[in-house]
Amino acid sequence: MSDATASQASAVASEETPAAGGSRWWYLIAAVPVVYTLTLALAPMFTLSVVVGQPIPTAGVFLSPKVTILVLGTPAFLVTLSLPLALHQDLRSLPLDAADWSPDREAWALLGAVGLFVPGYAPVVASYYLYRRFRSVG
Question: Which of 54, 59, 78, 127 is 20 to 30 Å from the Cα of 104, by its Cα?
Answer without folding.
Answer: 78
